[in-house]
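Hi C.,

You asked whether I'd gotten around to modeling the 864-residue construct. I have! Everything is below, sequence then structure, no commentary in between.
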Amino acid sequence: MGTSYTKDKDRQSGLGMACPATRLSLPRKTRNQNGNSVNSKALVIDGKRRVLISGSIHYPRSTPDMWPELIQKSKDGGLDVIETYVFWNMHEPIQNQYNFKGRNDLVKFVKTVADAGLFVHLRIGPYACAEWNYGGFPLWLHFIPGIKFRTDNEPFKSQMQRFTKKIVDMMKQEELFASQGGPIILAQIENEYGNVEAPYGQAGKSYVNWSAAMATSLDTGVPWVMCQQMEAPDPIINTCNGFYCDQFTPNSDKKPKMWTENWTGWFLSFGGGIPYRPVEDIAFAVARFFQRGGTFQNYYMYHGGTNFGRSTGGPFIATSYDYDAPIDEYGFVRQPKWGHLKDLHKSIKLCEEALVATDPTYTSLGPNLEAHVYNTSSENCVAFLANVGTQSDATVSFNGNTYHLPAWSVSILPDCKNVVFNTAKINSQATRLEMRSLNPIPEHQTSKQIIDSFKTLQSDWSWVIEPVGISKSNAFTKFGLLEQINTTADVSDYLWYSIRIEIHGNEPFLLNGTQTVLHVESLGHVLHTFVNGKLAGSGFGNSGNSKVTLEKPIMLVLSNNTIDLLSSTVGLQNYGAFFDTWGAGITGPAKLKGKNFTLDLSSYQWTYQVGLKGEELGLSRDPSGSSSQWVSLSTLPKNQALIWYKTNFDAPGGTDPIAIDFTGMGKGEAWVNGQSIGRYWPTYISPQNGCVNFCNYRGAYSSSKCLKGCGEPSQKMYHVPRSWIQPSGNTLVLFEEIGGDPTQISFATRKTGSLCAHVSESHPPPVDTWELQPQTGKKLRPVLRLECPSPNEVISSIKFAGFGTPHGTCGNYGYSQCNSARAPAIVNQACMGLKSCAIEVSIEMFGDPCSGVTKSLAVEASCT
């Protein structure tokens, strides 16, 4: 199997109109003899032009045991391609020492995709951005003499080429490129460089040209892309990233129109509301892209996953990378997003032959109304009808027929006559996903506790108090305030700054007696001040401004005083021109202030300690090996800064995904059996305003348009992969930085609550019945479908069934005066005791409770 892109417009795809992505096959070890060529329409695979639907899944953001199911659900959702970055700092954390095991097993991930019959787009970069720590660069890269990142700099180019070549050679050795019969059909070099290129000047332009030449010289046999790079040199394909890419045009008429990042939501920041994007808007954007000539589209993300360990960037990116994706952080399909997009993908595949064969013709149907038609023959005509207005629905005439177009929607007509899909009309079921909390972790366990048949944490807490200030033998002294990243090389989030001050009582910076004001400025991201071993104050920045300025009155004592400043990072910068030079930590000034005099301590001699004593002792990695450090014979300290906590637990029963609810804790990091589940920070509350109860999908989306969770913790649930725990005898370790009560935290399991669907009689019939319509000659009706997500579950109750004009949303449907009394009995008979059911939505089925009104069927059910 080979992949190319070719200018040969006369070559047809050879694929049936309804060929779905799930029928892909990947013959092995058949070398492509055709080489690469240029096509303005599409990628060419095995000599056939293809319309390709892709989705991003980042292998380190899930676990190998999750990969097969995530990939299968992606395939079931209509994807052809899985897209992933390659994360340099995960694979080479120490220069020339590589890690390709566990979550870092890139080869295994690619082969798992191939085993499912899907293709791979490998975004080698090796700069990733991705809200990932340092953009994916390893910190040791920063210390190479003379290096400047992402510019025409020989030390950087040498290292970038070496790593890129290593990844390419690994893929070649396993015969994973399409030119070798493998699944990799695309590769990417660099990432969104065009967004930041201008500040680099001419050196940036020459770097782009070098990157392109370096990548193509590696002879992968597959096309290379550069996203957000309008001046990508031939033969590199420039591609689009964004919420909408229908207006995008490649920089050459020899290159296909490709969309490498369609953002399905947005990332979560500590201290921010939770972003989400309505599926009607995503479907609108995708349909518009294919309407206007696109042939490759990728969802970023299709499964977002989890930022385990200290992998988050930002700074202030949260541990959850759910991204409101079609498959959620825990591996559940998010409905109706997943299902509505699946229907969209089926509809687009019906049009594939025409989309790859010709360019569309455009016709205005009125203000904000338009038609794009792909007409290759009298028997092959495809049309997209769009209403790009944001306020009013419209009725349009096209090909002698009339069509209703909701505002901000696209209708797809695979035969230029019948509507198979409208982006604003959802036929897919919805699901209410729940986190079901179990019992809190007990402070003193007196007996086995089983709550809802789940065994939970079953032992007492023990603890270790982290020393304030300097406690390690490798501490050192320097004059002046040191920048944190250069000092720690990011081996820890923490850097201690310590200074001793002798007070005689007559110092001019004193206010009353021995009181003064401590003023400290830091590039952050979190700052704690201790005076003579006691916490004096804390401050933290946010995702918009990581700088921290802390000004606190403090009391000193006559004689010697110790001021200890603890600087903490929350993920290193991952984006922006020269982001590697932005720095962190207490760069000053640091002052003692009185009424008329200020003592600047910035240039004084300070003592420094990289990291924590508990990190040096390995309290998180091997808590049993450091058992002599743990205390459990006195009262458990609570709401106190700088404490390590440990307990043992049995796993919750069943197979449902697990999370820990960190309600009651402050800020820190958590480890399960020595593996970090990430930073927690439930006390960072999102703003009280900015959220909406209803998100209007009509009109351009932005990351701040649709937010929820205002006035609540940005994140309180933290994913614990099932593969990391045993049925019993597990260890949980916490490092609490600002103070909390560990007895309040609890386990929760991820479950599906209700299944819901709400389908109007004006909706198109199911897309998979499309081929029946011309054969039967009768009008097909819309259908409401329900399906239990677990293979072992059946529909056990019908909580609501209404036909007429029911109102509300899943979980709170209600009846109106227009309601068929027959609906509950019909739905019960059709669905009870079955894994799935389908019900025609029509007055023939339910009767007509109110003539002259468009009616709909709403159902809420549960499965057991």
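If it helps when you're writing up: The CA atoms of residues 226 and 238 lie 5 Å apart.

Thanks,
B.
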